[in-house]
Every structure is written in structure tokens, then in C-alpha cells.
Amino acid sequence: MKKYVKNLAKKAKEASYKLARLDSEKKNAILFKMADCLLENKDFILAENAKDVKAAIKNKLQKNFIDRLALTEKRLSEMSESLKEIAKLPDPVGKVIDQYQRPNGLKLKKVRTPIGVILVIFEARPNVTSDCAGLLFKSSNIAILRGGADSVNSNKAIAKVLESAIASSGLDFKPFFIIEKTDHKIVDLLLSENEYIDLVIPRGGEALIRKVVEKSKIPVIKHYKGVCHIFVDKEYDMGKAIRICVNAKVQRPSVCNAVEKILVHKDIANTFLPLLKSELDKYKVEIRGDSSSRRILKKIKKAKEEDWFAEYLDLIVTIKVVASIDEAISHINFYGSHHTDSIITKNASNAARFTREVDSACCFVNISTRFSDGFQFGLGAEIGISTDKIHARGPMGLVELTTYKWVVEGDGQVRE
Amino acid sequence: MKKYVKNLAKKAKEASYKLARLDSEKKNAILFKMADCLLENKDFILAENAKDVKAAIKNKLQKNFIDRLALTEKRLSEMSESLKEIAKLPDPVGKVIDQYQRPNGLKLKKVRTPIGVILVIFEARPNVTSDCAGLLFKSSNIAILRGGADSVNSNKAIAKVLESAIASSGLDFKPFFIIEKTDHKIVDLLLSENEYIDLVIPRGGEALIRKVVEKSKIPVIKHYKGVCHIFVDKEYDMGKAIRICVNAKVQRPSVCNAVEKILVHKDIANTFLPLLKSELDKYKVEIRGDSSSRRILKKIKKAKEEDWFAEYLDLIVTIKVVASIDEAISHINFYGSHHTDSIITKNASNAARFTREVDSACCFVNISTRFSDGFQFGLGAEIGISTDKIHARGPMGLVELTTYKWVVEGDGQVRE
Among the four A44, A184, B83, B188, which has the fewest Cβ within 10 Å? Predict the structure, then answer.
């Protein structure tokens, strides 16, 4: 198996040099063809997906897991549409980011280039196969895609269909490689191929991502979890604060940009907290609180120390009363996950302090944390969200799937 | 020792939040003070350095190692001058890289921020201590500096002097931490502190860097080695080609941007190679060659397979005759180190192909590979060179020591 993996990684690297030569027009035409092929072969894909769903039911997997796994005609159209949208996005590759001339006549350019070979490890969401294949192809990166074992038939079917679209376009290399073997050992082997694979993007639960980081000899970009905060400051618009807190918690609680903790300035806690609670009660949100908030809101659960670190991904929120913006910032930097945090305030200097001092990928002012998303940011598509400090931070689109090189032209210059 | 390391890393992270609040003016004033203190305490630093040099001689370390270790008054002035130069460079922190508004009124800004805590691991060059302390301070990053065991007295002395400059400036935190313990285990422990340390930059030989990558749970930016190529194309200016090849090889052969391999187009090999050899002979450069170049240049050594991968860092060069630009590009991508490669050509479309298809951090046209350097690129200072694909590629200056955050302002917007 080691030989199989090395060979695959080596082939991927060789293909990356061919893909780097493909122009935008050709790439876009292929993306449109991929989109069409998905629809033309929908019966085949749905039949293969049904096998995975049947097995998942038999294996008594969780309902929301099966929901994510199951494809429908509507979902397939969305996948197809998404490939067309990617085709329409501007191509970052080849763009000159910066250029200048040195006194000795050297002309320097920083030019965007593909990263090379990118391994994406994800759980059982078959749409990720086509989304990632599309995003990585458009940014001229070779994709190695390893989906969850529970969606292996769906992934194989989607890959087969996309490959037929590519073959009919006359490419003489494979722009993506689907790992069909479900053996876990194969992932460990892939994560050792740092000579050929340039980057790993794991998508899924915290346990999966921690395992990948632990094993990988290749750089990894990831977020472990989203423990997002809203801090409601002393000078604030009550209506907006309520609307934002409720939206951030209930609009889609299962995702990483949903709010998990609400910090409230002590001077407004007595008026704001009861109102907030009565709104959250309408959506059956469980509230846990520190001792101050429990004095105001009777009968709420006591928050334990681990609650402040917790990503619930559910209709639960923990509330704390803070004495100042300083306490709010310190709390967020200590307990948070450096993903997305929002301040609700009318005070411009507090907004400036919050966005400067909170050490998170996304620092928001007077909006819902739910906006932390590549589409909402206008990136057009998203490969994931990074809470890392290097390369990319926050939502990652096509540009974040590129690197740059220095192109320097001269006329015979040498170093003195 | 584990507790000591965790405590140090945690303190560094806490300090990073304080450093992030310091403005440019204050940082620059402190850098000037650090520069002055180095000169004011030169006798102390030189005396401590003499201890290291004495021990190195006693331990029979190599001459060029001792050369790099030994400080002189002149070197100390250069270190001091370098801190002043860093003070004068523009501060990247807080710079808005991009800003735009979304149809729903959200105002998005990408703002440069410090990375946080950066661990620099280096060998016995005491000037690296002050250079790194300066660069990381200016970019508002907390530095953890671990120098080679053979320069421990020098590093401690420099750190003590710089710390006194900082203390007299009224900072209530330490902006850098020198690891004084020489036990190797401490490095392994530091490399596990991925909760508090954001980035590792190893500087030194390939063996050191491979060890760091192997052990680190923290992202690492590095280059293993510089196997730089020059490809002399068919249509070329002979005078420039000779001058560039000779400069790239002999001007400073011990550094990573010196040329190690010269590829020559077959159509010009008969005229070019004898001229090149007669010039290189003047500098006593040992030439190794493939079979074609050995037919033209009699009596040169035969290049073995491992020669094509080798970084000599010495007056040795390997020469190959290639049939085409395609062969040159494939050879460079396969055998090279993705550092810096240069084409000598009058053909603009070949120059464009070379700079697009060679997968290296720096792709040059008609200049010496020796220009691959932060100062030469006009970055003002350099923390190192990256052959990685993510975050930064090629020479890294202050900007490359920052990341960004998304600051998004609205007026009560929520997700539909």
C-alpha cells in the first residue's frame, strides 16, 4: 500500500506541472462540461448514493448524518450549479500581485501561482467531492480527495462522472484523484508524502482534524472548531442586539459560525438579559450562565468551566456578565477558538479596540457571526475556514488556494 | 522542564496581546535604544563572545564555523546599524490590504496583524539574535530565540543588553525570550507547544531543519537547501552568460543562492562550455559534467546521479547539456530545490515559459541567482527564505512576518 500511495502522490505532482500550463478558458470549458455531466448522469449517481444511504440506515447512523449523506435531484442540481459558478469566478492564477523596479534595473513581479498538489480529507458529504474538485481545478491545483468511508459509493460515482467529462475534453492527465480505499492506514501514508503533496485541508469534526494534524508531515490549514462570541457593550442598540444574538444562535445552530457564548456588559445586563431570554425561549434555546447572569435570569443552568471552551453546535448558549470591554477581550482570547467574534456597540472606539485586540480570524461589529462564510464575504466559493495564523485566515476561496512566485527580469546584472 | 517550557510559551502568548497594542512610534524608539545599547555595551558582549570562541577553538570546530561565531567591533556596529534600519522600515501591522462593501451593506476590510509568537531556531551566529529580535519586534511578534549551544554566552550577553534597553523604555512585558538551556530536549518540548506558539522558523543546515520539521506540531516555514540552476538557452548573449554564471558560482559559494548546476542548450554547448570552463578555472572551480559536456570539456569529472541533487556550498559546479527548454524545465523541477533558478536568453517566449513553468520560489531572467535575497529585493531586511508553498515564498521580510484578519462592520445585519 505504501508503494501505491507514493506512486499516486508522484503522479499527482507530475500532473500538477501539466495543469499549471492550462489557461483559464480551457479550465472554464471543462468546468461547464463537468457541471453538465453531473446532471446527465443523475440516475447513476443517485442509485450509487442510495447504496450508501441504505448502508448508513442499516448501520444505525445518526439522522443528521444521513441527511448530509443523502443526495436528491435538487442537491445534484445545486452541485452542478456550483461548478458553473466556479467557472464564472475570476482565475487567480497568473495575476500580478505586486511589481516594482530596483535602482540596479531589476524588474520584480510577484505572480500568483497554484500551490501544487492538495489533499482534502472530508467526512460523508458527497457534494464536497464535486465542490472541491471544482475549486481545486479552477485554481490549477491537483486534488487528492479522501472522503468518508460511509459515502464511498457516492464519491466514486461522482468522480467517475467528472472524470468522463474531463476525458472527453482531451486532457492527457488526471486533475483529481479519488482515494477509493477505505482503509484508515492510507490516510497516514498520504500524510507522509511531503515530497509530493504541498498542503492538506481537513474538513470535518474536531477529532478528525486533530488526528490529521498529529500525523501530518505536510502543512495543514484548518479550524478545529468555532467557539464564536458576541459581546454586547454598554452603549448599544437593544433591538439590533436581540436580533443579532437570536440570529447567530438559532438560524443554523449546527455550523461553526453559530454563536456559542454571549458576553454582556454589567451596566445593561439587568435590562438586556431578560429580553434576550424571552426571545431565545421561543426557539427552545437552553441557556447556561455565570453566577451574575444567574442572579438576573433565575432558573438557568450553571455554566461549568468546560462550557466556556465548548462548541455545542446545538440550541445551547452560555452567557456571562463582564465588567468591561477589557474583560470581554481577555475572555474571548483565552476561551475562544480564534474563529469569529462580534461586538454590538454604538461606541466607535470600543469597536476599534475590539477588532484590533480580539485575536480572531474574523472580528465583526454590529452583525451576526453567521456572516463568517466565503459566499457571504463575496469570495464566490469556499474551500473551508482557517483559524491558523499562517497563509490564510478566515474563509478561504480561490485566491487562498494559490501561492506566489517572484519573477525577476534583468539585463545581465550580477552581485558586486 | 516540560512545565518550564509550557510556562514560557504561555507567557509569550500573553505578552503577544500586549505587544499587539504597541504603536509604530513606540516600537521604533525602542529599536533605536536597542541599537545604542549594543554599542554602549560592546566590551561586555565581546568579552562574552570571546568565551564562546575560546571554547570553539578548544573543541577544534571548523574554521568557517568560528569565523561566523566571532564578533568584532565592526560586526557589532553592523548589528546596531541593522536595528536602526529595521526601525526605519514601514510598519506592516494595521495596514489595510483590501476593503470593499457587499450589497447588504457589510463593510469588509482585510487588515495586517502580527502572527503572534514565533520560535526561531538557529545555529551559532550571534548576530541572528539581534537581527531576529529586531525584525520580530518591529512586526509585533513575540520572539522565542533558540541559538546554537556553541554561542550561548554571546547570545545571553546580547539578550541581556537588549533587555536592559527594553526595560529602560518602560515596557511591562518581555518582547523576546532567549532559551539559555542548551539541552536538546528543550527544542522538542517547544515544538509541541502549538497552543501558544504560532510559527517556527528554523535557520541553519539541512539536518537541523529536517529534525525540526519531523518533530514540530507547529507550522514551520523553511528551506532545506538551495540547489540553484542557470539554464543558458540557445539564443543568448555570451558575455552576459559568462559573467552571470561566474558571479553566481564564485562571488560567495557558501550561501544558498549560489548556483550549483548549469544547464546548457546543445546548440551552443560547443562554443560556450570551453569559454565558461576557462573562466571558472581562474577561480579554481571544480567542474563535474554529464557525458555530453565531458565530450566537449575533456578531463572533467563525471557527475553521478546524486550530484544533480547536491548543494555543494563550495567551488564545485555540475554541468549538463540539454536538448531543449523542456528538458531544462523538467530537470530543474525534478532535481532542484524550488529555491532560485535563472534562464539566460534573448528569446522572450522562452523566458515567459521558464518563469511560468519552473516551480521555484524565484524565477529569474538574465540575472545572477545571487540576487535571491531580501535586501536585494528591496524588502529592507530578511528573516529567511522559504521554499514552502504556503504563507510565504522566497525571501521573507517584515510583511511575511504578519498575517491578516477580517474586520467586518455592519449596522445590525443578520443572515436570512
Answer: A184
